[in-house]
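=== Per-residue structure ===
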Amino acid sequence: KRNAFDIHAYGSRVLNNFSPNRDNVSFNSVVRGQRPEEVSRYFLSMLMLANTENVEISTEAGTDPQLGMDNVSIRLLSTARHHQRLEEFQSARAAGDITNDEDQENEDILGDVSRRGEKRQPEFRQPDSPLSKKTAKKKRK
């Protein structure tokens, strides 16, 4: 039986491969000796780290890009963990530690993003179930 998958724990393991003197590692060195299902988990965690701008994924210089995973290189950009910062912000906001000035600053940042043409995520809306559509048709009749 496989252990539960905690993407943040695997991400921490990826980040632990870096040191002050070593900001580039190969993906192969990160997963050396791991079972195939573990390699998949590390890969997904690496993609998440790239998405949150903790690492940059590239191919090793001078190698054939067609080699697949054999030449994937990871470069450390930041050790700040997005999920931890988000949890801290949510806790501070719930405790009332976030001031109106800070809320306004966040709104200003979001407004700047909108002016640059970046799209904010729309509010999540539960999809209508087929039953609710039938009920709505009956009400219209």
